[in-house]
Specification:
alpha/beta, single chain, 6-stranded antiparallel barrel
Length: 361
């Protein structure tokens, strides 16, 4: 086999996808090593969430057992500092700034594909592999790009748009060629205990979904209350602190307006949460920065027609992106889109391929 003696580190989260990815690579002739990242920050908290998310102790045990069943070595590597610096601090800082972060994208870019890949190469590995539903392909011009998963409903390319060319060149994602059902069937066929383990849904370090409570605990201070205002600045009531809100939110506002109202903007400078009608939540354009390009090497001052996703669950919408020449791109949609949210990622697609993406400003 051409892959014989090629060494690959598989990031094993204790789930069925990464476990089957390890098996597929072993079957292809790779020398496979399983690694689980220790990223939890608080031992006591970890014990409490032992059965949830991808960073609890239960995940380590599930990954270790899967590696044993596959007959591959397994190690736990400590990335507590990297996760704290690049994911938790970023998550808290963005919410305090009145923005809505995407911690999974930050974790993929800075922890899994920066820290873990570097450590994998340091121990002699040729590649890093994960169980993500995406495909890495080298295009005719020599650039690497992500291609959407065969399982369209499970596609995870949105959360991986920030990977660099150097990282993609060293990345394998074997699960991207299969459906979730096929992955589970393979796991059952080879007798993996995790074959029927449910998918993790929540942000791994906040299993109770209480983001504001977590931020308060992390900051060790109470974020101040402030005013709900309409678009003209008229005071409508008092909010609990801007970390409780995101653009497009309707529930939990506790405002008696006689009609449905929504968060349309968060103003950190004045500590105001702007309230409006549903039509006010729609926008036909956005500007993004912190750009990363995949299928193309930038726009070169020009424009390009693409499909753009503005959140993980967004179906994507046709738009024209234009190079603003200062490290930013303007994205103008054919039809207004709901809840364009500062801090979230916008990812551009040309057919099945990721063109690039950035952070919504």
């Amino acid at each position: 086999m051409e892959n014989r003696r090629k060494k690959v580190v598989v990031g094993m989260s204790g789930g069925v996808d990464s476990s089957v990815a390890a098996w597929l690579l072993k079957e292809q002739g790779y020398d496979v090593i399983g690694v689980t990242m220790q990223i939890w920050q608080d031992e006591e908290r970890t014990v409490q969430e032992e059965n949830g998310g991808c960073c609890g102790l239960g995940a380590v045990e599930d990954a270790r057992k899967a590696a044993w069943q596959l007959g591959i070595p397994h190690y736990v590597m400590n990335f507590k500092k990297e996760f704290g610096d690049h994911v938790i601090s970023y998550f808290v800082d963005e919410y305090v700034r009145g923005r809505t972060p995407n911690p999974c994208i930050a974790c993929n870019r800075h922890v899994k594909w920066e820290a873990l890949l570097k450590r994998s190469l340091d121990i002699g590995a040729d590649y890093l592999a994960t169980g993500h539903y995406a495909r890495v392909e080298r295009l005719a011009g020599g650039r690497y790009a992500l291609r959407k998963s065969q399982a369209v409903s499970k596609d995870q390319t949105y959360a991986l748009y920030a990977l660099t060319q150097e990282q993609l060149a060293r990345t394998l994602m074997p699960a991207g060629r299969y459906s979730k059902e096929e992955i589970r069937q393979m796991a059952e066929k080879i007798g993996l205990d995790v074959a029927k383990k449910p998918d993790s849904q929540e942000i791994c370090f906040i299993p109770d979904h209480d983001y504001a409570g977590y931020i308060k605990e992390h900051c060790k201070r109470e974020l101040p209350q402030g005013n709900f205002v309409d678009r003209n600045g008229n005071v409508l009531g008092q909010h609990k602190g801007i970390t409780h809100y995101t653009v497009g939110q309707r529930k939990g506002l506790n405002l008696s307006m006689g009609r449905p109202v929504f968060v349309v903007e968060i103003r950190k400078e004045t500590n105001e949460v702007v309230i409006g009608d549903e039509k006010d939540v729609f926008s036909d354009s956005l500007t993004c920065s912190d750009l990363n390009w995949m299928a193309v090497d930038g726009l070169g001052g020009g424009t390009m027609e693409v499909m753009a996703k503005i959140r993980y669950s967004h179906r994507g919408a046709p738009c024209v992106i234009r190079d603003l020449g200062d490290g930013r791109v303007e994205c103008r949609f054919r039809e207004p889109q709901r809840a364009v949210t500062p801090g979230q990622a916008v990812v551009f697609y040309d057919g099945e391929y990721v063109v690039g993406g950035g952070v919504i400003q």
